[in-house]
Design brief:
Layout (H helix, E strand, L loop, with lengths): L3 E8 L21 H14 L3 E7 H10 L7 H8 L1 E7 L15 E4 L3 H10 L4 E5 L2 H9 L5 E7 L19 E8 L5 E7 L3
Length: about 200
């Protein structure tokens, strides 16, 4: 069974986006650059077993402008060469691109959770989600995320979306690992308590 791991940056009070009234994909307004750099090394480790990235539409739009231009970086190489699946809900995007690399495939329709369940049962390496809080909430509600790796930065903000907004029911987790990062950030890894 393929595993799905979320890797996401968060404020101490659980905000994972920028200001929704501006550019909510721009969480760099509160990020800790030292934590970003060190956290990226842990993201790179996920690609030892993962070969696919799941992206929500907004995160795809943001990352597809940035990552294909990254050269000479181990993480950039892994991200650019990985298979990409973009959840586009009921309205497919006409022409998805990822620079000169393999174009992402789309998951569309009203049965996204079922499609992802089938992907988990299929062939291939593990899957990684980074960013994509709307997709994360949907998959969290469907209990499809196996592991949550959250880089927490030592800042609280008063705007932005929280990771677990709009949960349909309580979710219990247990702490698998915690790694202190530079400048008071930390990487916390959680799995479902029943796992």
């Amino acid at each position: 069974m393929r595993k799905i791991t979320l890797f996401i940056h968060s404020t101490l009070n659980g905000v994972v986006t920028g200001d929704p009234s501006e550019d909510k994909t721009n969480w760099s307004v509160w990020r800790n650059s030292a934590g970003i750099e060190e956290g990226s090394q842990y993201l790179l480790q996920l690609f030892e077993t993962a070969d696919t990235i799941l992206l929500g539409r907004g995160t795809y739009e943001d990352l597809s402008r940035k990552w294909p231009n990254t050269r000479g970086s181990s993480l950039g190489d892994k991200i650019n060469k990985a298979h990409k699946l973009v959840v586009t809900s009921a309205s497919p995007h006409e022409d998805l691109k990822w620079g000169e690399f393999e174009a992402p495939k789309q998951l569309t329709g009203n049965n996204i959770e079922e499609q992802i369940k089938d992907l988990k049962k299929g062939d291939g390496g593990d899957m990684v989600i980074f960013g994509s809080p709307t997709l994360v909430r949907s998959l969290a509600n469907a209990n499809l995320i196996d592991e949550y790796q959250i880089v927490m930065h030592p800042v609280a903000v008063n705007v932005g979306e929280h990771l677990f907004d709009n949960l349909e029911e309580r979710k219990d987790f247990h702490l698998v690992d915690v790694k202190p990062l530079k400048v008071s950030s930390l990487l916390a890894t959680y799995r479902h308590a029943e796992a």
